[in-house]
Design brief:
Largest sheet: 8 strands, mixed
Number of helices: 32
Oligomer: single chain
Strand content: 15-25%
Strand order of the largest sheet: 1-2-4-3-5-6-7-8
Helix content: 25-40%
Shape: globular
CATH class of the largest domain: Alpha Beta
Number of strands: 36
CATH topology of the largest domain: Rossmann fold
CATH superfamily of the largest domain: Alpha/Beta hydrolase fold, catalytic domain
Distance between the termini: 57 Å
Structural class: alpha/beta
Number of domains: 5
Length: 899
């Protein structure tokens, strides 16, 4: 009898059962003894009727202990489910059979067990590692009992020509295999070491418990030996049968994944998504192979189960899951949505066909390359034909690592016309963030400049590689590059006899995915944001209507998102000589040269770019001043823009109307405000006569088609409610609704559900309030709210007050200490900058405290830094989370260092 004395396990769950075996590995009439963790008897004793059964299958070298959190959650009154977590034969505390059991045997073994248990449905299988394959084998064989599938880090297919993961190759090596898996406990220890964070000693001990002694580990070694590394392996036909059978499953599926898995990487997740395309998928960034240990998987599993529908048999997803996944609810399908590139195509066929459409500037101030509208259309058509011939088509994921300019414009619109999904993750995420984004998106193709292709080779980014330019043969082989955009364009031109005047291409489904755009990662790992063709077109139309950008407008695109949007607006677009992934590299001369080249009427630039333009304006020529003097509209987005900065910009662009749209990767724009309106809002705040005016950055009124509402903050600094309000002066999380809001977060099912838990709205994670004039005031991020004793403090209002001090450049207000008792700490960047970071001088600290007190905030400590840490992409968003950690260390007596 097994004694169940393991942390997190109720002894009542542990049981043994004798099962007649039908496996080919056993002689007829053989009976095998299984050990299970099963809460069925406990539920019955408590009078709880289970909604169904979770059949949980572990992999190698774990055991049923892996599923203890599911057992605990399923045993409660809130969502009772019977959870049967098995110990496979030769594993855990089940019988050591002395036989070699292959994949086919193990699938049959599981069927024998469920028959003996009388599990007749509804059953949801749950699998991990090779237990995932076995659970899917059972699912394929038992469609009448099956109600759903849950998978964690597993695989059912090894790509042809691809080697199995290095860790498994090592475990299979003859010199290592028996010693590492059976003779010693090395394989177990290495597996347990994959947990992030490390397993607690008692938990690690529980995982080791069934495998103490070589005689108890034969199954561990046999499991490894049964990995079908290629088609010659005896278990390969069974694996292939299961892999193809999965495609026929017609039940809901959930995949919970740890991306930092050296064994089952994202390429295996991508394969599973291809076989179960309607599955809900969530990647837990930072988690690894033992995702059930690294993260709480019980909560999402039972949340998903609650949304499956009545548990009286195989279930379909509830209809309202569309709302949960798509934010603003289901849209009317079909025609009537002009594709993103419609203005471009019309201009190419009209009287403006020979006019410049896109251009890019050289570093000497001259125009480097340019295309007319007709040439742009022809190049897009030719490249689309070449890409299609290379295998790019509907739903193909294509990562674009090409700087804004002519090449990116052509390849972007070529991919969109083919129905491909473009992945846009720029170098502004930093090497680590960019690598994480690309690997998570699992592109089929990666198109990039030489630098990006070199990074792909070093960092192991997925996707067939295409270079922008033709490369020498040796360089092409070194970077594993198949071809180039130039070669594909030549190929495409020869494939279509109609070129250079192609007919209209088929328009993709408006509700099909078109792009995955990555957030800045300023408040955590960058998230992939999915846009459909419909929503991209809605973004184009919103920008055009809000800012009155007409066809024929001439814009300088110093902000990457608008460098791509220009042709869709029918606007002439020029990219200035700058590194768009580092906005502060834009100089006044570069901006002026670009403006002069097209006689620009519109300029897009981030706040960091504008600061550098102002800092370098002394070098402007008279012609440069004149070119900037003709600009009619300036847009600055990506971070809050101080009124003083805009006032300085106004003197440089005297005729321009200055606008600062508020938005985010998930919805751009949301609101809009001009310099004059900013000043009017400041006057209202100073007068104190308009309800809600003040305490934050005024970002204006909602743009055309958008709505804004607030979920009030609770005393703990969260916004737990789901009832939006519009009353002035109520501070809380900002909600938005608009036709151009994102479709979903890519492979982040939990994040997506949270973002749309208020039906019909996207929850932004920003904090703010509305005033009586309907204007939105942003007060910071929800994650940066400080919960001081008896008060909830949003940071931006106090920061603005502090920044009015002459010797303060920028300020950040952060919380230090436990929630509810946090000390409010102000971190300031001084003018001139201090030489070393640490406690501020007493006189400065006193002035900072007085300024914050005038804004209604009591500051406990003031620290000074030479410069604030900012995000890489915008060079403007202060990393308050990093500052809070640094401030906590300083106030605890640690060495100040640099934040």
């Amino acid at each position: 009898m097994v004694t169940a004395d393991w942390p997190g396990v109720d002894p009542e769950w542990s049981r043994e059962i004798d099962v007649a075996s039908t496996s080919a590995a056993d002689s007829p009439g053989t009976v095998r003894r299984w050990h299970l963790l099963d809460n069925g008897a406990q539920l019955a004793r408590r009078g709880l009727a289970p909604a169904g059964t979770l059949l949980c299958v572990h992999g190698n070298p774990t055991w049923s202990y892996l599923w203890r959190t599911l057992l605990a959650a399923g045993s409660g009154r809130e969502h009772p489910w019977r959870v049967v977590a098995v110990d496979q034969l030769d594993m855990g505390f089940s019988e050591r059979t002395g036989t070699f059991r292959r994949l086919e045997d193990r699938i049959n073994d599981l069927g024998d067990l469920t028959a003996a248990l009388g599990l007749d449905g509804p059953v949801v299988t749950v699998g991990h590692d090779w237990g995932g394959v076995i659970s899917l084998g059972w699912a394929v064989a038992h469609p009448q009992q099956l109600a759903g599938v849950v998978l964690t880090n597993t695989a059912v297919h090894q790509p042809s020509g691809a080697r199995i993961p290095p860790a498994l190759r090592l475990a299979l090596h003859p010199a290592v295999h028996r010693w590492g898996t059976t003779g010693t406990d090395t394989f177990l220890r290495v597996t347990h070491a994959l947990a992030r964070p490390p397993l607690a000693p008692d938990v690690r001990g529980a995982f080791m418990a069934p495998y103490r002694g070589a005689g108890r580990r034969a199954g561990v070694g046999n499991f490894v030996a049964d990995i079908p590394a290629d088609a010659s392996h005896p278990s390969f036909p069974t694996l292939s049968r299961v892999a193809e059978g999965v495609r026929g499953l017609r039940v809901p599926a959930l995949m919970l994944w740890g991306p930092r898995d050296p064994i089952f990487s994202d390429r295996y997740l991508k394969d599973l998504i291809g076989r179960l395309p309607d599955a809900k998928v969530h990647r837990f960034e930072g988690a690894g192979h033992l995702v059930a240990e690294d993260r709480d998987i019980a909560a999402p599993v039972f949340e998903w189960l609650a949304g499956r529908g009545p548990a009286d048999g195989p279930a379909e997803e509830l209809a309202d899951d569309t709302v949960l996944e798509h934010g603003t609810g289901p849209q009317e399908p079909g025609a009537g949505v002009p594709p993103l590139w419609a203005p471009l195509a019309e201009l190419a066929a009209g009287p403006a066909a020979g006019d410049t459409a896109v251009a890019e500037m050289a570093t000497d101030g001259s125009v480097g390359r340019s295309l007319s509208w007709q040439q742009l259309e022809q190049n897009i058509a030719a490249l689309a034909a070449g890409l299609q011939d290379a295998g790019v088509g509907n739903g193909t994921r294509v990562s674009l690592m090409v700087p804004p300019g002519v090449d990116l414009t052509v390849v972007l619109y070529a991919c969109l016309r083919l129905g491909a999904v473009v992945i846009v993750a720029d170098a502004g995420l930093g090497t680590r963030g960019l690598s994480r984004a690309v690997k998570g998106a699992t592109p089929d193709f990666l198109i990039g400049i030489d630098k990006a292709l070199a990074a792909a080779s070093v960092l192991g980014w997925p996707g067939r590689r295409i270079s922008v330019r033709d490369l020498p043969a040796r360089r092409r082989r070194l970077l594993a590059v198949e071809t180039s955009l130039a070669a594909l364009a030549r190929r495409g031109a020869g494939l279509s006899p109609e070129l250079p005047c192609p007919g209209p291409a088929p328009v993709p489904d408006p509700d099909a995915p078109a792009a995955v755009l990555f957030t800045s990662g300023s408040t955590g790992p960058a998230k992939g944001v999915v846009y459909t063709h419909r929503r991209l077109s809605a973004m184009r139309d919103t920008v055009a209507a809000t800012l009155e950008i007409r066809r024929g407008a001439r814009l300088v695109a110093g902000f990457a998102p608008f460098a791509l949007l220009g042709p869709a607006l029918g606007a002439v677009s020029v990219t200035p000589a700058m590194d768009v992934t580092a906005p502060r590299t834009l100089t006044a001369s570069a901006l002026a040269h670009a403006a002069a080249a097209i006689d620009a009427t519109v300029v897009f630039a981030s706040p960091a770019a504008l600061r550098n333009v102002l800092a370098t304006r002394a070098g402007l020529s008279r012609a440069g001043h004149e070119a900037l003097g003709r600009v009619e509209l300036l847009l600055s987005a990506g971070a809050p823009v101080p009124e003083a900065l805009l006032a300085d910009v106004q003197r440089l662009l005297p005729r321009a109307s200055l606008h600062t749209p508020y938005g985010m990767t998930e919805a751009l724009p949301v609101t809009d405000i001009s310099l004059e309106q900013i000043r009017a809002a400041a006057a209202d705040a100073a007068a104190g006569t308009l309800a809600g005016a003040g305490n934050g950055v005024c970002v204006g009124r909602p743009v055309q088609g958008a709505r804004v509402a607030i979920i009030p903050l609770a005393a703990d600094g969260t916004a737990p409610g789901n009832e939006p309000v519009g009353e002035p002066g109520v501070t809380g999380e900002i909600l938005i609704s608009a036709p151009h809001v994102k479709e979903a977060y890519d492979r982040l099912w939990l994040t997506q559900r949270e973002s749309v838990r208020t039906a019909g709205w996207h929850r932004t994670g920003d904090v703010g309030h509305l005033d009586a004039a309907g204007r939105l005031w942003v007060e910071g991020r929800l994650v940066h709210v400080v919960t001081a004793p008896g008060a909830v403090v949003t940071p931006v209002g106090a920061e603005q007050a502090i920044e009015h001090l002459d010797d303060v450049g920028t300020a950040a207000v952060v919380g230090v200490g436990p929630s509810g008792t946090q000390a409010v700490v102000a971190v300031v960047e001084t003018v001139p900058p201090v030489r070393r970071a640490g406690p501020a001088a007493p006189q400065l600290a006193g002035r900072v405290r007085d300024a914050a007190r005038a804004a209604g905030v009591s500051v406990s400590a003031v620290l000074a830094v030479p410069s604030q840490p900012t995000d890489i992409r915008h060079n403007a968003k202060i990393d308050r989370s990093r500052l809070a950690r640094w401030a906590s260390a300083v106030l605890a007596g640690g060495r100040p260092g640099t934040p």
